[in-house]
Amino acid sequence: MAFFLGIDISTTSSKALIIDDQGRVIAVASAPHTLQSPKPLWSEQDPKEWWQAVSTSIRGALEKANLSGEKISAIGLTGQMHGLVLLDEKGNVLRPAILWNDQRTQVQCDEIHQRVGKSKFIQVTGNVALTGFTAPKILWVKENEPEVFAKASHVLLPKDYVRYKLTGEYAMDKADGAGTVLFDLRARDWSDEVLAELDIPRAWMPRTFEGPEFTGYVTPEAAALTGLKPGTPVAAGGGDQAAGAVGMGAVEPGVVSLTLGTSGVIFATTPSALIEPEGRLHAFCHAVPGMWHFMGVMLSAAGSFQWYHDKLAPELSFDDLTKEAAEVPAGCEGLQFLPYLSGERTPYPDPLARGAFIGLTLRHGRAHMTRAVLEGVSFGLKDSFTLIQNAGMGAITQVRASGGGIKSPLWRQILASVLNSELVTVNTAEGGAYGAALLAGVGAGTWKNVAEACHACIKITGSTLPDPAQVEAYQKAYTIYRSMYPELRETFVQLAG
Questions:
Q1: For residues 234 and 218, is the Cβ–Cβ distance under 8 A?
Q2: Which of 203, 248, 474, 478 places its Cα 20 to 30 Å from the Cα of 78?
Q3: Left if phi > 0, otherwise alpha if psi is -120 to 50, otherwise beta: which for 65?
Q4: Which residues contact residue 471 at a Cβ distance below 8 angstroms, ignoring those fewer than 6 apart?
Q5: Is the bond leading into 347 cis (omega within 30 degrees of zero)?
Q6: How many CA atoms lie within 13 A of 92 on its CB side?
Q7: Using one digit for the tens of pLDDT, what is the confidence trace for 166-199?
């Protein structure tokens, strides 16, 4: 029997997951990370802490599985996207990593659009320049820490620093490469044109590989720290969203992944490099060879419900709240909620956007407000869903849902009716780490391709169909929802001071 190891370097922890060649999860172990915010809007981590946490997690998973490192056939990597790790020519870390949720680089985003041309930048990279992405972080270091920039020789992302520590190789998968917005999306490799316009040396950028391809082999030094066998192959893997889609089986056109966590993500596989003309969707390479994907992100999805519960009804359980809300008709009798508690990203990249209840009357009570939060988040996800449909995606046949919010039957029904699509759950709940392990198994030859691996290992466990009466009510309510942000945008600017 073969075993595969998936490693996930998230913002909060490193996870090691072992599966067998039937796709069954054998063991999971994790170790925490700390987060630093030395100035307002800054978010940083020490890359050396990732490596310590990964080493601890691997040993923990091997111990739980009662396996020696000799039994691991291949390793796959995933983790937080867009972070900047700068190394010198000897591979030493030059400064703390600047993370995906760091917001210091708006000036550099504007500079990128000015230097390259915004429309041209979208057409080459598939995206607008946003503060979360890697490219503006590099320019920020150049302009604010020239002594660090002068020593730089290598640019990596968080999981790829762990790859370097495991194998001694500078490498990156094509999905995460596209997420730096320094990629030529159609060519699936670095854009010499964009790099030149931004004065970023091409030599700094690592070789890129498809998700299942092997990028290197565990060194004796790394083996001694982790308990793995020297020479164990390490697959390219993918960024957390691409690997998470593999872990959900969203690897073919028409099957969409919906993640309802603190933030919300709609992820759709595309067979070609489709680009939303205004850059309102992220367009990246997939971890599946020869595939791409669209991605829409809302910042406060289940996080909106968490806020509502904690601030307005902490004495009740989430189940108590949704039980009340189930008695309210679809559309909440005219009450709407805008879920922009942390600003927004898709379809409005606006950090000044604010949350709001709109339409309150004497008739409305707590049950109406609860349901309005669930419906407002669902409408926000439909924004991304609609953009994907309008950008040439073709027919959407199924939505595969995951995340804490999906545990609510009411919320599942609302989502199915708002999206007017079947919503299914699957038997895997480990997200990116599971997807990374499957990619490693494909690289090792256990499955001939990613689709075969997903079909063999991922099974549907539940299905929620749209309610025709709710579909009609939500179509009317969504039209009103779509009108509110444009009407309130200037008000949000004024409220922000």
A1: yes
A2: 203
A3: alpha
A4: 417, 420
A5: yes
A6: 6
A7: 999 999 999 999 999 999 999 999 999 999 999 9
Residues assigned a catalytic role: 240
What is the dihedral angle through the alpha carbons of 451, 455, 456, 462, rounded to the nearest 10 degrees? 150
pLDDT digits (tens, 9 = 90+) for 269-301: 999 999 999 999 999 999 999 999 999 999 899
SS3 per-residue string spanning the chain: CCEEEEEEECCCEEEEEEEECCCCEEEEEEEECCCECCCCCCCEECHHHHHHHHHHHHHHHHHHHCCCECCEEEEEEEECCCCEEEECCCCCECCCEECCCCCCCHHHHHHHHHHHCHHHHHHHHCCCCCCCCHHHHHHHHHHHCHHHHHHCCEEECHHHHHHHHHHCCCEEEHHHHHCCCCEECCCCEECHHHHHHCCCCHHHCCEEECCCCEEEECCHHHHHHHCECCCCEEECCCCHHHHHHHHHCCCCCCEEEEEECCCEEEEEEECCCCCCCCCCCEEEECCCCCCEEEEEEECCCHHHHHHHHHHHCCCCCHHHHHHHHCCCCCCHHHCEEECCECEECCCCCECCCCCEEECCCCCCCHHHHHHHHHHHHHHHHHHHHHHHHHHHHCCCCEEEEECHHHHCHHHHHHHHHHHCCCEEEECCCCHHHHHHHHHHHHHHCCCCCHHHHHHHHCCEEEEECCCHHHHHHHHHHHHHHHHHHHHHHHHHHHHCC
Query: Side chain identity at 138, as an amino acid letter?
Result: I
Instruction: Round to whole Å and give the CA distance between 228 and 225.
Output: 8
Report CA-CA distances (Å) from 36 to 10, 120, 133, 325, 345.
14, 35, 18, 39, 23
Which tens digits make up the pLDDT trace of 372-397? 999 999 999 999 999 998 887 777 88
75-88: pLDDT as tens digits: 999 999 999 999 99
Bridge partners, 4 (sequence order): 19, 74
Per the CB < 8 A criterion, the answer to whether 41 and 467 are in contact is no
